[in-house]
Amino acid sequence: MLYNFAVYQSKIYALVRLRNSSGKDSWIIEKYNCAGNYIDSLKLDKKIINLLKNERISKFEMSGKYGFIRTFSGSGVLFRVASGRTVAKIINKIDLDIAIPGRDKKADYALVYSRDTGEIWNIDSRHNKLNKIDLSYEYLNYLYTDNGKILISSDNTVYGELDSFLTKK
């Protein structure tokens, strides 16, 4: 059963739940080219499967070697793709969300953030790195990013160049 899909750089990623004849579920991400031809599939990490067992998916995104899944309850997971499988990097953060540039079709970054804790991570898709942005927020309302700029809505609204924010390795 197709649960959600994402498009990144002319590739279609389908988040699929499979059920065998004994009723056991397995989850995979199938990858297709823009013509709809199957390329390969990725196995989901057991931690991610456990999150999805009792949750409905509200958002699914891919950015380089990273993927993001958010549930309707607000839980989420950021994962990395490695050797044909997914590896959870950030999981079960409350109110986890992602901001992907809207108009910049060649964007090589995305921002993952926790509304509950105020933490922000930059997915550098060009170098396949995940960096935590060093800002002291207790909570976040919303992040918007486009053309290398970031708008942070919280107790203090900040707008600036993404590269100007300090990151931790």
Fold blueprint:
Blueprint: E1 2-8, E2 11-19, E3 25-33, E4 38-43, H1 46-52, E5 57-63, E6 66-71, E7 76-82, E8 85-93, E9 96-99, E10 109-114, E11 120-124, E12 129-133, E13 142-146, E14 149-153, E15 158-161, E16 167-168
Antiparallel strand pairs: 1-2, 2-3, 3-4, 5-6, 6-7, 7-8, 9-10, 10-11, 11-12, 12-16, 13-14, 14-15
For the structure shown, list the relevant keywords:
169 residues, mainly beta, five-stranded antiparallel β-sheet, four-stranded antiparallel β-sheet, globular
The major beta sheet can be summarized as: 5 strands, antiparallel
- Number of helical stretches of at least 4 residues: 1
Parts with pLDDT < 50 across at least 5 consecutive residues: none
- Strand line-up in the sheet with most strands: 9-10-11-12-16
Distance between the first and last residues' Cα: 38 Å
Category from helices, strands and their pairing? mainly beta
Give a count of the beta strands, DSSP E runs of length 2 or more: 16
Share of residues in helices: under 10%
SSE run: EEEEHEEEEEEEEEEEE
Spatial shape: globular
Beta-strand residue percentage: over 45%
Mean pLDDT: 86
Calculate Rg over CA atoms.
Answer: 16 Å
